[in-house]
Design a protein that fits this description.
Layout (H helix, E strand, L loop, with lengths): L15 H9 L4 H10 L3 E2 H7 L5 H13 L3 E6 L5 E6 L1 H22 L5
Antiparallel strand pairs: 1-3, 2-3
Helix pairs in contact: 2-5
């Protein structure tokens, strides 16, 4: 019996890749995961400085989406001036670990000579 399909997937086909791509899809999301892995707690401005080229609007949007997916934790402190910090959740840490083989594959490809 076919599983109900999700938008954008072939009829009757649902796999873990489409779910994962919903979470990490977008140019900057994987880099946000990496930055939060390297620096376990970052404020918005710190995160933006670690990702040259990302706009405030895109970063804010990606962080909201990643928080909704449960891979990023946002903590807002009731201070003056206001302070907000971002960190990985347990699921975010597990996702980052799952991406390690992909990173290794990419490093191997970038070290390889270009095809003839």
């Amino acid at each position: 019996m076919a599983t109900p399909n999700r938008p954008g997937t072939p009829e009757g086909h649902v796999c873990g890749i489409d779910t994962a791509m919903e979470v990490i899809g977008g140019k900057w999301k994987v880099l946000v995961l990496w930055a939060l892995h390297e620096h376990p707690c970052l404020r918005f401005g710190e995160l933006r400085r670690l990702l040259p080229g990302v706009t405030e609007k895109v970063l804010a949007s990606h962080l909201r989406e990643m928080e909704a997916h449960g891979v990023v934790r946002r903590v807002s402190y009731d201070e003056v001036p206001p302070r907000v910090e971002y960190s990985l959740t347990e699921d975010g840490t597990r996702l980052n670990e799952a991406l390690r083989p992909l990173a290794a594959w990419g490093r191997e490809r970038s070290d390889a000579p270009p095809p003839p």
